[in-house]
Design brief:
It is a single chain. By secondary structure, the protein is an alpha/beta fold. It has a single domain, classed as Alpha-Beta Barrel (TIM Barrel), CATH 3.20.20.100. It is built from twelve helices and twelve strands. The strands form three sheets. Strands 9-8-7-6-5-4-3-10 form an eight-stranded parallel β-sheet. Strands 1-2 form a two-stranded antiparallel ribbon. The C terminus is likely disordered. The structure holds NADP nicotinamide-adenine-dinucleotide phosphate. NADP nicotinamide-adenine-dinucleotide phosphate binds next to β10. Keywords: Oxidoreductase.
């Protein structure tokens, strides 16, 4: 089995039937956008899921990287996010269409409200969120956004949206790593059919020096970054978005390594997500088998 087919054979079903590839490539502005790394990931490594945001300011460059890679748009999963400065019905519609123009694409596979707190003085946050969400519902209906979701939303934000709107978000993208485990939110999302998507799998780099992470990495002959990404995949099957930067390119790995240390972690959540058990046994099959972009392609 080729690396690319292994990488892309793991996906998660959204409530509207679309399947989102589990491992995505982040393009946050923090640390800088690296054009070569995106082209390399798409062209040479077969990565097909990219996460970006209007806020990151790299939409034009990312569009260029996609065209440069030669990967057809239809083979990609592109997530983009709406910044609160553009919340409100009209502004949200315009911002989404502007993002499409900047990236030179006709649609996004997933479009998220980036943050629950709007920056709209004089109006209630709940009202602005609902109005913004209605714009996303329309963009979804029109096919501009194949799936729609939210990011950094807490249970109370999701409950309000459920009362005020008609489409339940397909995804909630939230910080998630061994030191940030919002268990009740994860359970709530699972109950509501909202896919929980984790970001910052390395705790923004801070997890890499933690003694437990280092001990497990040493024991299995892996890097701490690989252990963290593997942990994210194993525990609740979020799909971690990993950063794209020169210095961290080697972290763009899919680690097919079964971490027995954490296999019993959060048993309720572990059993709730239907796909998790199936995925876990698949990973057990690949026990101690590691695929690394650099070692395979260089
Ligand atoms: N929805 C949201 O609100 C939100 C918020 C944050 C992030 N995200 C998404 O999640 C993606 C990842 O977030 P993140 O940047 O916070 O990720 P992260 O994986 O938790 O942390 C990345 C940081 O770890 C450092 N690092 C050290 N060793 C590394 C290694 N071996 N491999 C990779 N990184 C290493 C990097 O340092 P260097 O700079 O030296 O490489 C970088 O500063 C973003 O690009 C974005 O797409 C979404």
């Amino acid at each position: 089995m080729s690396f690319s087919s292994v990488l892309n054979s793991f996906s998660v079903s959204l409530s509207n039937g679309l399947r989102i590839p589990m491992l995505g490539l982040g393009t946050s502005h923090r640390g800088g956008y690296c054009h070569e790394a995106v082209v390399y990931a798409l062209k040479d490594c077969g990565l097909r899921h990219i996460d970006t945001a209007e806020r990151y300011g790299c939409e034009e460059k990312l569009g260029e990287a996609i065209r440069e890679s030669g990967v057809p748009r239809s083979d990609l999963w592109l997530t983009n996010k709406l910044w609160p400065g553009n919340y409100g019905y009209k502004a949200a519609r315009k911002a989404c269409l502007d993002s499409c123009s900047r990236m030179e694409v006709e649609y996004f596979d997933l479009y998220l409200m980036h943050w629950p707190e709007p920056m709209t003085p004089g109006r209630s946050n709940r009202e602005v969120r609902a109005e913004t969400w209605r714009a996303l519902e329309e963009l979804h209906k029109e096919g501009v956004c194949r799936a729609i979701g939210v990011s950094n939303f807490l249970i109370r934000h999701l409950e309000q949206l459920k009362e005020d709107c008609s489409v339940v978000p397909h995804v909630n993208q939230v910080e998630y790593h061994p030191f940030q485990q919002p268990d009740s939110l994860i359970r709530y999302c699972a109950d509501q059919g909202i896919v929980f998507e984790g970001f910052s799998p390395l705790a923004k780099g801070q997890a890499l020096s933690h003694p437990t992470v280092r001990r497990i990495a040493e024991k299995h002959g892996r890097t701490p970054a690989q252990i963290c990404v593997r942990w994210s995949i194993q525990v609740v099957t979020p799909h971690p978005t990993v950063p794209v930067q020169h210095s961290s390119l080697h972290s763009v790995t899919l680690i097919l390594l079964f971490l027995s240390e954490w296999s019993g972690h959060n048993p309720q959540i572990y059993q709730k997500e239907q796909g998790t058990r199936k995925l876990s046994s698949t990973f057990e099959f690949f026990c101690f088998f590691l695929i690394n972009f650099r070692s395979i392609f260089q």
